[in-house]
Amino acid sequence: MAAAEAADTQLMLGIGLIDPSNQIKNDHLSTVEKDTNGEVLWVWCYPSTTAPLRNLLLRKCCLTDENKLLHPFVFGQYRRTWFYMTTIEVPDSSVLKKVTHFSIVLTAKDFNPEKYAAFTRILCRMYLKHGSPVKMMESYIAVLTKGICQSEENGSFLSKDFDARKAYLAGSIKDIVSQFGMETVILHTALMLKKRIVVYHPKIEAVQEFTRTLPALVWHRQDWSILHSFVHLSADELEALQMCPGYIAGFVHLEVSNRSDLYDVFVNLAESEITIAPLAKEAMTMGKLHKEMGQLIVQSAEDPEKSNSQVIQDISLKTKEIFTNLAPFSEVSGDGGKLVLNFEALKQRRFPPATENFLYHLAAAEQMLKI
């Protein structure tokens, strides 16, 4: 038990406070004044953070956004570091008399939005009450070392209440199938082949809800490291993204649709459209195998008796059948005992061209081709 808690508490990396200097309450007036020359400040963090990560987090903070829309909670990943940011409006009753809004951000090694949303909300309440990072720091250290912080006034938090598997299952495959129907199989195929999927919607909440769900279509991998749910068209972020062999990347700027170098599959969530990039069409050719998978996905998702996790299980079982198809054409290589594809044996089986093509590209995605 103690070992499990210790392992869990090693997941957090840091905490930061972002406070907008351009949103100051006038001590003598009841109105909010905004200094047009002001900047959003990185006020405090523990431990110290790098300048590139600090700049990225400021970019993600909605208080720096020109449209001034308040996003209560956003999350994403940058170079294997997850960030979770809660932003709130400061009520007049708070001790923070000169601040109208602030954001608290946690960085961590793990994907678990619900866990860090709950913890950042507690930290926000502490800052509202005390107006100083000291109490936040105490709670952060408590969770870091013991996995728990308790407060009658601000609420209690227990790390072990937030299982990673629950985070993986929090999205709704049923909602995706309701929107895209049989075309959901395009997303499944792209994920199986470890392709690059870009998702666009003007609302970050819609982007994050959709993208976080997609890795569940390939549940056998249980790999959420491919998720980059909140990406800007900034050079540093795109460079980091393009270092990944396959990914799911979420954007709120439509200009990304013109960046065909970034995707194999483009999802315009706002228009319910899925587009396969020209260079990916050969690998993504659909056949009987895909039709069967698509029908199973739709049939399972539309069953009102089935929960989201049961739909994921159905897709996972069908996916395992595909790997079973590949097994007879796999052999142990001479160097290191790794499984590799016997392409001649696959060709002799005389599958339909689309099936053979898919199995070949699946073997490539699983690094089963002889080099």
TrEMBL record:
Glycoprotein in keyword set: no
Cellular-component GO terms for this entry: late endosome
Coiled-coil portions: none
Subcellular location field: Late endosome
UniProt-recorded Gene Ontology molecular function terms: guanyl-nucleotide exchange factor activity; small GTPase binding
A Pfam family matched in the record: SPA
Family: Belongs to the DENND10 family.
Protein name, UniProt field: UDENN domain-containing protein
Organism per entry: Diceros bicornis minor (South-central black rhinoceros)
